[in-house]
Amino acid sequence: MIKKIFFTPGPTELYPVVHEAIAQALKDNVCSINHRSSEFIEIYKSTDNSLRKLMDIPDENHILFLSSATECMDRMVQSCVINNSHHFVNGAFAERFFKTAIELGKNSTATVVEHGEGFDFSSIPDMSNSEMICFTQNETSTGVATELSRIYEIKDKYPEAIVITDIVTSAPFISPDYNKVDAAFFSVQKGFGMPAGLGVLVVNRRCIDRAEELKQKGYSIGSYHNLISLAEYAQKYQNTETPNVLAIYLLGKVCEFLNDYGKEKMREETIAKANMLYSMIDSSSTLRPLVKDKNIRSQTIVIAQTGERQAKIKQKLLNSGYVVGSGYGKYKDSEIRIANFPMHRIEDVRSISEILSSI
Amino acid sequence: MIKKIFFTPGPTELYPVVHEAIAQALKDNVCSINHRSSEFIEIYKSTDNSLRKLMDIPDENHILFLSSATECMDRMVQSCVINNSHHFVNGAFAERFFKTAIELGKNSTATVVEHGEGFDFSSIPDMSNSEMICFTQNETSTGVATELSRIYEIKDKYPEAIVITDIVTSAPFISPDYNKVDAAFFSVQKGFGMPAGLGVLVVNRRCIDRAEELKQKGYSIGSYHNLISLAEYAQKYQNTETPNVLAIYLLGKVCEFLNDYGKEKMREETIAKANMLYSMIDSSSTLRPLVKDKNIRSQTIVIAQTGERQAKIKQKLLNSGYVVGSGYGKYKDSEIRIANFPMHRIEDVRSISEILSSI
Questions:
Q1: Shortest Cα distance, chain A CAs vs residue B122, angstroms
Q2: Which H or E run includes A313?
C-alpha cells in the first residue's frame, strides 16, 4: 500500500521530528513523571523558551497551555468580557468564536462577510463599546488571511479593547507583533504537525488585569482555567490541572527543530510552496481559486473550487498518496483544501501541483 | 541505570499495551486523520464500546470526552447548577470540586472531614436544596474510599438532586452502578496507565435534561463543552472540537486489553495487592497507615505515614527502581502514597512490601 502523506488542514501530517520525540519521551518516562516535579518544570520551561524564540513572544507575555483553540476562545470570553465582544466573521472558525460569546450570554456583535471574501476595512462599525475585538487571522474554512497590519490598526483605534486573534492555521508561519495585539492562540495539530490535544494562548498583562478587574467587580471569570490561575501557574512553569504533558514536551521538540532549521528559511519556503500552488490553480482550466483577491490569500491554507469533479480529483491525488482536505461545511463536495505547513516538503507540493495541472 | 517503575498516584506507569498502541497509532496515521472522518468515528465507537463493556456503562448513559477530570467538574457545574451544590470534602480533590463551584459563583456548601477520615453518614446535613451532590469516591490525597453504597443511599434520599462522583483514581477498579448515580468521571493517567490529557465523563439523561432546563430558563450553560453539545456530538461518535484523538484511541486499546484479560481477575488482583501493602504497613514498626478505619481504605491509593524518614524511604525504594508518590500538600514530607493500579504487577508490589518491611 502506498504511504499516505496528509496535506489536510489539521489534523495533518506529523512532523518527522514528532515520531522521534515520542520514542524519546517514552524512553525518558515523560508520561509518568509528576506534573509538579522538577523534571516536568524543566520540560515546560524548555518548551516555553523554544516557543518564545520561534514566535518572537516577549518575556512579559504569558504563554498558557489549554486543551484546544476552541477552549482558548471560551476562556478568553469567560475571563475578559462582561457584556460584549465584536467578531470579524469570515468563516466557520470565526463564527465559532462569535457563537462562544453568545453561548456565554454576551451581547456580542459581528461583522460578517461572504465565503472566500475579506473585510472592507474602510467601512467597519463603531466598536467603542466592545470589550474584546476578535479576529481569525487565517480562516481555515475559507483560506482567507487578514493582514496583520489591519488588526494592528484596529488596536490603534480601540486601545481600550482587548484585541485577540486566532492564528490556528497560520502559526508558526505567522506570529503577530505581541506589542500590537493583546492575545493570540493556536492549536498544535496544524502548523506544528503534532497530535491534537493542546491549545496555546498567548496573553499580555492587559488580559490578566482585565480578568482581575472582572473578579473584583464580582463577576465569575471561570474556575481552574481562568486567566489569573492559568498565568499564576504558568509563572511556575506548571498548569492548574494535570495537563497534556506529552504534548507540551513534543511542542518543545518541534520548536527546537524549527529554531535550528531557521524560522526565516521555513517562512520563505512556505511562501515559495504557496506560490507554486496558487500559480497552478490560477492557470488551471479545471480549478478556480476560492479567494480571488491575491492580497488576502492564506499562505498556509490553499483552497480550490473543483465543481463536480472533487471526488475524482481527491482520488487522483490519493493514488499518489496525497490526502487533501474537502471543503468546509456546505462546500464539502465542491472544494479542496490543501494545507501548506512547515512539515510539507516542496517536492510533494511540486508533485501535487503537477498532478492537479494534468487534470 | 536501573529502570524506573512508577507507583505514583498519577501520572503513573504506562500500561505496557500503551507502548504498543502508540506505535500502531503512528503507523496507522491515527494522529493525522480528520476528526469528522469515518476512520475517526470507528475509533471513537470502538473506544466507547470497550469502555462500556469494561465499566458496565449502560447504553442509555452518555460517555463524554473532555480534557481532564478538573474540566469534568467545571462543565458539570456550568451545565447543571443554578444556585448551589453540596460537596463531601475529605481531601484536596474533593476541595477542588467545591472550589470550582464557588469560583463559578454558586452558593455551594460542604461537609468537611479531617485528613485521612471518612464521613459519618449517620449525621449528614439536610441537602433538600442542593441541585447537585458531589462525592470523591476515592480521594487521591488521603487514600480514603467512600463506599459506593453510601453514595447510593444519598441518591435514594435525594432523588431530585444530581448525584455525581469523582472516580479518578478508582476507575477501572471500581465502576459505580449507573442506575444509582447520575454521573461519574475520571482521567486516564491513573488506573488506565495512559499519558495525561483526557477526562471521561459519564452522564445519564437526567443530567442532559437538567442542562436543557437551565438553558430554557435563560441561564448560560457554557459554550462548546456544555453537556447538550457534548452529548449531541457523542451520539455521532465525535467531539465538538478536535479532541485528543490519540488518547481516545489509546483508551480503547487499554479497555480492550483489560476486557480480554478479565475485569474480575483485574479486580481480584487489585484487592490482593492492596491487602499485601496494608498488611505490611499494619505490621511495620516504621510506617503507620494514614487511614485507620479499614472499611474506608482505598484499594488503589495506599498511604503510609513515614515521619521524618520519608526521603530515606523513598530513596531506598528508588534504589530498586520503584518511584512512589509523596504525601499531598502539607503532608508532602511525612507520607508516601503508593498507587495500586491494574498495570502494577504483584511481583513488584511484593518487592516494595519486602523493601518497606526491612526498614
A1: 32
A2: helix A310-319
Task: Specify which residues B339 forms β-bridges with.
Answer: B301
Q: Do B225 and A26 touch (CB under 8 A)?
A: no
CB contact under 8 A, A103 and B223: yes
- A197 interaction partners in chain B (CB closer than 8 Å): 67, 197-198, 243-247
Residues B1 and B197 sit within 8 Å (Cβ to Cβ): no
Write the residue in A19, A194, A220 that is nearest to B26 by C-beta. Answer: A19
Q: Is the pTM of this model over 0.90?
A: yes
Residue A28, C-alpha cell as written in the block: 525518558
- Amino acid A65: pLDDT: 98
- Collapsing DSSP states into helix, strand and coil, what is residue B19? helix
The amino acid present at A242, given as its one-letter code, is T
Task: Name the closest residue on chain B to residue A218, using Cα atoms.
Answer: B105
Q: Give the pLDDT of residue B132.
A: 98
- Three cell numbers, residue A285: 482550466
What percent of chain B lies above the pLDDT cut of 90?
A: 99
- Mark the ranges of chain A whose per-residue pLDDT is less than 70: none
Query: Strand, coil or helix: what is A342?
Result: coil
**CB-defined contacts A:B, below 8 A:** 163
Residues of A in contact with B77 (CB under 8 A): 223
> For residue B359, what pLDDT band results from cuts at 50, 70 and 90?
confident
Cβ-proximal residues to A224 (8 Å cutoff; 6+ apart), any chain? A240, A241, B70, B71, B73, B74, B96, B100, B103
Q: What's phi and psi for B215, nearest 5 deg?
A: -60, -45
Q: Can you read off the three cell numbers belonging to residue A55?
A: 514566535
Chain B interface disruption, residue of A75, A242, A332, A333, most B CBs within 10 A: A242
**Cα(A87)–Cα(A146) distance, integer angstroms:** 13
Measured CA distances, A227 to A49, A247, B236 (Å): 20, 21, 32
**Confidence category of residue B342, pLDDT binned at 50, 70, 90:** very high
Q: Which of A13, A197, A220 sits opposite B32 (nearest CB)?
A: A13
Task: List helix spans (H) across B236-333.
Answer: 245-261, 263-282, 310-319
ipTM above 0.95, yes or no: yes
Residue A109, SS3 per DSSP:
strand
DSSP code, position A307: G
Q: Which residue of A has its CA nearest to B194?
A: A31
Instruction: Kindly state the cell numbers that stand for A107.
Output: 451581547
Grouping H, G, I as helix, E, B as strand and the rest as coil, residue A279 is: helix
Q: Where are the beta strands (DSSP E) in A25-169?
A: 62-66, 85-89, 109-112, 132-136, 138-139, 144-145, 162-166
Segment B54-89, tens digit of pLDDT:
999 999 999 999 999 999 999 999 999 999 999 999
Residue A341's pLDDT is what?
98
